Amino acid sequence: MTQGNSDFDESRENLLLFVWRKRKIILIITGIAAVASVVVSLLLTPLFRSTAIVFPAATSTVSFSEQRNAKASSMDFGEEEQAEQLVQILQSARIRNRVIDQFNLMEHYDISMDDPNKYHKLNKKYNNHIQFNRTRYGSIEIDVLDRDKELAADIANKIVDLIDTVKNDMVHERTVPAYEISKRKKEILQKDVDGILAEMDSLSKIGVVSIEGRANLFQAYNQSKNAADRDFFKNQIDVNLQYGARFDGLENLRDEKLTKLAKFEDAYDQAESDANTIFNHKFVVENAVVADKKDKPKRLIIVILATMGAFVFTVFALLIKERIAELRQRA
After folding, report:
1. pTM for the complete prediction?
2. Which residues contact 243 (CB under 8 A, 6 or more apart)?
3. How far apart are CA 156 and CA 5, in angstroms?
4. 283: which strand partners?
């Protein structure tokens, strides 16, 4: 152990002696790197950060079901699943393309329309300047970096507004056709009921009555006191004997259709609400504001890292050079 410590101390002293002998060239290269990093950091365009924070909503619909889940309240904040879905929507081309078009980011990012790789460069710039991150609290941070601090805040707030617009468009792409199908089905059921009622009315006009009424007809016939009454009730009985079965069938079918139509009302109301409601899909915790201080570049960090990197690189380069020279002399 003592021998090991002695070897380590000797290697450290040799390294320090080597650095001291090469101090001039090390200082020159390190100084040049420091000056260059200062110049480069001053030339970098300052970027300002604006941040908006939103929570996803737990549900995006109004439920008409009596068995509604208590966790599906429109007042509830969304959980991990809703947060992941919201991040996917924020990263989608639906939002990206609208932001690019509204703020003319192709021109703002100095990308030529004649560039064959313009869309690749545009998407790369967009992803570098606009980011969406989940926080540990389940919210979503919308970060926008830009050289124009007012534009950064405008873009962040516009993205917040687009959440509802884009998600409602996506929802309506499915709910509107579903509503149209429900509407047609309801119209068919209502038309069937109206047809049944119309036929029952026509039968009622010629004297057809329900099965309970027919029993009363026979009783009235038997109690008739004159021929005219007996002829009248006999005619009514004949009509009911001819059309009574049809009337009973229509009555049962009417009740069945009305029951089915009543049960379908909830589904229809749900479909109509989903298709026509413009819903809010997020809770805005914090809108973006115009930054009063630049976020990037961190000039001091750039200078320190560049200077330290130049120092370490120079020392290793000189060590390797000296080692190669020693090997050549031995050869």
Report:
1. 0.67
2. 203, 206, 208
3. 59
4. 55
